[in-house]
């Protein structure tokens, strides 16, 4: 297995690389040394992907919370008769 660049450009690329590593390891195509290197790279990619997913989940939570709040501060509820 050729050495891969240690740079991770994005979630989708990292996930695709991780899937390829898993396929290579499951296929028994790798030597012991290459398997160890692939495992190490896979662990890095997995950590990166998990971190990105956690970040995305947190952003969704923040956005959902924002949708439930009234940002104007002085708007009266509908039907209250106040303008």
Structure report:
It is a single chain. The protein has 83 residues and is mostly helical. It has a domain at 11-67: Exonuclease VII, small subunit (Helix Hairpins, Orthogonal Bundle). Helix content is 63%, strand content 0%. The chain is built from two helices and no strands. The chain has helices at residues 11-26, 32-67. Helix 1 (11-26) packs antiparallel against helix 2 (32-67). It is rod-shaped and about 60 Å long.
Specify the oligomeric state: single chain
Summarize the main sheet.
none
H/E order of the elements?
A: HH
Residue runs with pLDDT of under 50 for 5 or more positions: none
Gap between N and C termini, in Å?
Answer: 69 Å
Provide the fold topology.
Blueprint: H1 11-26, H2 32-67
Helix pairs in contact: 1-2
Q: Which key phrases capture this entry?
A:
rod-shaped; 83 residues; 63% helix; mainly alpha
Concise synopsis of the structure shown:
The chain has helices spanning 11-26, 32-67. By secondary structure, it is mostly helical.
